[in-house]
Amino acid sequence: MTAGTPAAPGGADAPARLTLSKALNEGLRKAMENDPKVLIMGEDVGKLGGVFRVTDGLQKDFGEDRVLDTPLAESGIVGTAIGLALRGYRPVCEIQFDGFVFPAFDQIVSQLAKMAYRSAGQLRLPVVVRIPFGGGIGAVEHHSESPEALFVHTAGLRVVACGEPADAYAMIQQAIRCDDPVIFFEPKRRYWDRTDVDLAGGLAAALPINRARTLASGTDATLLCYGPMVRTCVEAATAASEEGRSLEVIDLRSLSPLDTETIFASVRRTGRCLVVHEAPVTGGLGAEIAARVSQECFYHLEAPVLRVGGYSTPYPPSRIEEYYLPDLDRVLDAVDHAFGY
Amino acid sequence: MAVKAAGQAASRSRTRHRPTDQPAKPELIQLLTPEGEHTEHPDYPLELTPQEVKALYRDLVLVRRIDFEAIALQRQGELGIWASLLGQEAAQVGSGRALGPRDMAFPTYREHGVAWCRGVDPAKLLELYRGVSHGGWNPKEHNFHLYTIVIGAQTLHATGYAMGIQRDGALGEDGEAAIVYFGDGATSQGDVNEAFIWASVYNAPVVFFCQNNQWAISEPLDRQTRIPLYQRARGFGFPGLQVDGNDVFACLAVTRHAMQAAREGQGPTLIEAFTYRMGAHTTTDDPTRYRLSAELEAWKLKDPIERVRIYLIRSGVAQEDFFADVRAEADQVGAGVRKACLEMPDPNPLSMFDNIYAEPSALLAEERAQLAAYLSSFVAEEVGR
Fold this sequence. Notes:
Radius of gyration of chain B: 23 Å
Structural class of chain B: alpha/beta
Largest sheet of chain A: 7 strands, mixed
Oligomer: heterodimer
Number of strands of chain B: 8
């Protein structure tokens, strides 16, 4: 056991209670141990361990050749990761904050996403781009963005968002194993949330990365969420149950592709569907889901598909971000609305 | 007229440079003068057998012929567009022939001469321009990456690839290196500057081969830089060289030298091949709108092929039969390219759904089925009629 691994209480195989940040760290460590081609690259990921400590201790244990503190240039991070992948490596890039992915946008959209297609499948780019995303931490501008829809709109990328530690530990390993490029969103305000994580569990038993997970079963409405809104929606379901409403909560996990099978099955049972995300609703993932649900579940719907999300504004200053971000009350308000039809 | 004169004066003053500590007259490395005279250079000795010189001449003539055929095919509507290499044959053949089989090259969309040196079937180059694929060849088979259209993006790919060479422990006397091609316009791109920084701080085994053809579509060099491009390397902390890009000997010698330095762990080099784009940017472009024919005429005297021909004749290495053979072969290659182009089938529309992901996609399978059903509905209608 390495110094950075917390002792599992109650024996080696008992689950450890880890923060999301630590669960990701353990997942990265496991992936690096399993495959010498896995590299980590980004700004401050070495000695500092990343600004959120997700890569803490990895450079110490795996060396500077495998955990690269890079020059401060996001296009350079993704562009050179592409070159390393062409040479047979599996780079995991860290973009320090959501708002800083845009300098790398061309490399992601025009190069990373399209190389397999351009080469008629002769080249594969198993690159993971990790992005801490979302607001709620009182940050300055460009540190609270939710740009996932831009990547979902781009063919050739897989886009996932982890919501909780237990899941994140397996998901990051699955993303690294995937031969397609994966944009991996991490809800930054949930980095300090803790759950039990089964560090001994193999990936074979884990839910595939492209499947949604039903976190709470219900009969009256379906809440679709991901990333930071997972906890919000679970809490909303608990509160709603006290009012006699039974909400089903589905953590989408994979945003591209969408697990439409799970989504449609749930909505056909409940008859009501709400999509909850921090990103602005205009042109957001909720719009895509609403269109698909309306088309496939039309005769089962008791109400239009509703979206709960950020307003169509730039991200506001942090002193008023609580009015922008969906919270438990706004979700429940939308649920009330759905029952008003 | 007065207005025009004032405008010209303003333009000149904008490009008047402050004095710098750079040498006033850059040293252009040249081993073969435009008059076909072979000169020695103390730092870049080049020993070539007569056979090797003849082989270079053949390369130059054939790639120009392929290019000529492609332009004709575009004019006849068989290609959507073509980016001509006319004038840049020596830069491409010289550098291309400096590469070992295990070296990796990252081209722009104009590197038809390098592609030839890497053994890519010229007909495959046409696929992109005809619109039947986005690529055309297997990069791994030739160690020649696909053409990159977004300006400068490939410089980062080459640098990352070179960092992989380092991690593989593939450096040393018989080691590997990467070379990346780009133009004078690309030097203004962020990606190119980031690639310089990365290659520098990681000491990556990559050679930056800039073909300065003086024009980025309609924009002249002085819209991209106020110092000679090769001098940029100094600020990034690695050597920069300027070579006569119309001199196949010098391009070969300098690239060999830089590649070997990279293979042996001495890090990156910037080579500025000083050349000229004799044709249009692409077949959609009209250079008469922005440049003077006098400039073109001056560069015609520096033709990269003619000087090798004169050298071969003067040194008694080749006689008319050799030149006639090369001409005949060129026509044969041109005819082969034409035939392959005309026979190139359009892809199956349903193939647009292929190779987007490594793993199967339910969404794409569904959309593919939709298009297939839609297409077959037309067949059914026609049959019904």
